[in-house]
Fold HI0933 family protein.
Amino acid sequence: MTHNTDIIILGAGASGLMCAMTAAARGQRVTLVDHGGKPGRKILVAGGGKCNFTNTEVGPDDYVGRNADFCRSALARFSPWEMVALLEEHGVPWEERDHGQLFCRRSAADVVEVLTSRCRDLGCRFEMGRMVTGARRDADGFIIDCEGTRLAASRLVVATGSPAWPQVGASDIGHRIARSFGHRIEPVRPVLVPLVMPEGWQLGGLQGISLEAGISTGGVSFVRDLLFTHRGVSGPAALLASCHWLPGMPLQFDFLPGVDIPALCESPDHRRQLVRTMLTRLLPERLATRLIPDDLGGRKAAELSRADRQRLADAVRSHTVVPTGTEGMRKAEAAAGGVDTGEVSSRTMESLKMPGLFFSGEVLDVAGHLGGYNLHWAWASGRAAGEAI
Ligand SMILES: Cc1cc2nc3c(=O)[nH]c(=O)nc-3n(C[C@H](O)[C@H](O)[C@H](O)COP(=O)(O)OP(=O)(O)OC[C@H]3O[C@@H](n4cnc5c(N)ncnc54)[C@H](O)[C@@H]3O)c2cc1C
């Protein structure tokens, strides 16, 4: 098949757009193929429409994946400030929020506009509304099947993301294409997703309550805002925990992080109070009532035995439950798992199995914590692929 483009990029999302503008700036003819009507649909919903596009501090520890070091090389070559510089060049206002998160001040649409206009200025072609169903190799390069039509190029980038949040066109096509070229797929699971608790959970029915809490699972702990939902927990603490939680694992909550409850019971401010009164001043009342062991709430704090003080501390600071699952891909901001990074070059993102085939973004087994890390990985890996291809 004759080629009227050098490179086909599957997916005009965050990573595909960054890869396209980088390769086109090096003089390559680039075509982006996407089944959406418009590019960057996931960018538009990111950060509640304000797009948490990066973080002031980004490093391999902010990511999960089987090979934790895979992202190091690409991250080292694309700093958060390069993304800031790109947006500033186009007059996009941004702001820093807590935990180093950088957001657009106006709208996520600003980011999409910068990337798409840069691509267009550099001559990239957009083939929108084209559903990719597969890809294969022939003597001249790669053939892409798009529901009845075919496209061809000598090099191919798979930047079709993960199946998380299918409402904006997310799919597993990238994993299927990778598998067809002999790549192994690390099992895919929803992350940055609310967790569902068992029927009859001691803290069920507290929906609407939010507070700062500690949360631990899989050997990792976070202290962030937690929100009780109808079916379990959400908010930054729960979403972060979901990156490290696997079915069957317990989750431990610390509802008074850093507070020494046995010492509190003896403190001059609290020793004469009923345990119930003491804790409802420190925690939302409905939550405190559920947490306090039945036989302790009506007793004076100073009168508790050492064992009872410890029992109270455990109830409040080590509440343990095994979630029944997550709210699934429809409510997940990302997916962990994906193309096995042991079979891809961490410097160029090129397949180690099929020369000319590249992967970038969330299709790979790299998932970031909450805080702008997933988009940063999309930019950094797209840049690495675009520089090498
Ligand atoms: C609700 C929500 C909020 C988020 N907020 C943030 C945030 O604030 N900060 C952050 O860092 N990350 C955030 N993320 C995650 C972030 O958006 C993704 O990690 C990032 O977009 C991944 O980039 P990507 O290029 O790999 O994939 P995508 O941006 O998903 O792009 C993949 C593209 O492939 C196309 N595609 C898929 N299947 C096919 C097919 N069969 N044929 C043709 N085209 C196809 C899709 O239409 C899409 O345009 C959020 C995600 C969601 C869902």
